Amino acid sequence: MHFKRINHIASLLLCCFLAFPLMIKAQTTYTQFWNEVDLVRAINDRWVAEIDLAATFSNTPSEPRILKTNIQRNIMAWAHCQVSPRWKLSSFLAYYRNKDVPEIGQYKAPEWRFAVQGRYYFHKIKYTLNTDMRAEVRFVADQEGIFEDIYRYHQKFKYIQPLNSQILRGGVVYILASEEIILRSKPKETGLRYFDCNIFTAGAGYLITNDLQIELVYANVFIPRDDHNEIDNAISITLTVNNLLKKVGKLISGKPIEPTPEE
Fold first, then answer.
1. Domains along the chain?
2. 180: helix, strand or coil
3. pLDDT tens across 166-225, in order?
4. b vs e for 17-38, b when ≥16 Cβ sit within 10 Å of the residue's Cβ?
5. What are the two backbone dihedrals, phi and then psi, of residue 44, each rounded to the nearest 5 degrees?
6. SS3 114
7. What share of the chain is helix, strand, coil (3-state, %, to 5)?
8. What is the C-alpha to C-alpha distance for residues 71 and 61, in angstroms, rounded to an integer?
9. How many CB atoms sit inside 10 A of residue 83's CB?
10. Residues 2-8: what's their mean pLDDT?
11. How far from 88 is each of 8, 24, 26, 37, 146, CA to CA, in Å?
12. Are strands 70-82 and 87-98 parallel, antiparallel or unpaired?
């Protein structure tokens, strides 16, 4: 299973993540729970549509219980195009209902996001390695209801290693790790002013079938400030369902459901 290669890549990602907190001594830490449902629909051989529904729960300075406070909900609509075997282009429009987010100062703030993204695949036989390059604009309402535009750039590397197969298909367990750096156009008031945050994740997933997948991931979000670090430690659960509406329609009409081809 090439555990040495896995260990080397995991160590590199971990070192990148640990390098940032060493710059500042004190820290403010939040513990969070992220949950997400992704509904994916293949339109043809190149185009895929996707709807993501997500919610974030967290402790806050006034409430230590994690599941007591829902700090954010969002819905995101994606369009993906597989331009070539190595390149996939994507775009999304999202609405966020921020209720009690520490990052924006603990106040209710609606938010719209729009982004374009390119993903490049490094083709390997027994593992998956890709990098995402995303340009994003956020329109966040302040306490007076005035929307402010913030432009951000994301750079992400992700590694996936199947454990009981050479490809990802139904019945396969896999491990994953990723490292993401986010930069912003408008400087923050404190900290590394154009550096928004760093996100490190590590976890595992299971493809129950070719159309049903679940992931359990640990995430660490690091946000620098002048006199302290803001750190979010989160457990994330993501459920991905492929072609749900198509299958429900066939069940209602009584038509047989064709199995999804293996990747």
1. 3-253 (2.40.160.40)
2. strand
3. 889 999 999 999 999 999 987 765 556 788 899 999 999 999 999 999 999 999 999 887
4. beebeeebeeeeebebbbebeb
5. -155, -165
6. strand
7. 15, 60, 30
8. 12
9. 12
10. 51
11. 27, 37, 40, 21, 35
12. antiparallel
Task: Give 254's DSSP letter.
Answer: T
User: CA distances (Å), 195 to each of 83, 86, 164, 180, 263, in order?
Assistant: 31, 29, 39, 12, 37
Total-model pTM: 0.82
Tell me the pLDDT tens digit for each residue of 39-93. 999 999 999 999 999 999 998 888 889 998 899 999 999 999 999 999 999 999 9
Which phi and psi angles does 105 have, rounded to 5°?
95, 20
Say how far apart CA 160 and CA 68 lie, in whole Å: 33
- pLDDT reported for residue 62: 81
